[in-house]
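Q&A FORM
Asked by: J.P.
Topic: structure of Antibiotic biosynthesis monooxygenase

PROVIDED:
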Amino acid sequence: MFVVDSMVKVPDHKADELIHIYQKRSRLVDQADGFISFQLLQNDKKPGELTVHLEWESKDAYLKWARSEQFKKIHELEKQYPDQELQGIVPKVSKYEVVAT
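REPLIED BY: S.T.
REPLY: Here is the structure written out as tokens.
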């Protein structure tokens, strides 16, 4: 299994707005070959720290998704957030190969 985490930090007062955006997400990734799950995680001590957690069957499945037109479409939508503070978010992306369960 391959895991991709994209962590963002927003002002605490913007956290609920970003959560709402993800609750209404397009779900295009859900249809990708090799996709397992999506979770949005909120740090319990820092409400403005949110992490998108994606699980994939393999690194190859993730890379195929990351090069797809659907991936580009989703990330173009992010640039169109009406809130300027949320438009400028740059995530810290970490990628992991699961080596034990």
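FOLLOW-UP: The mean pLDDT is 90.
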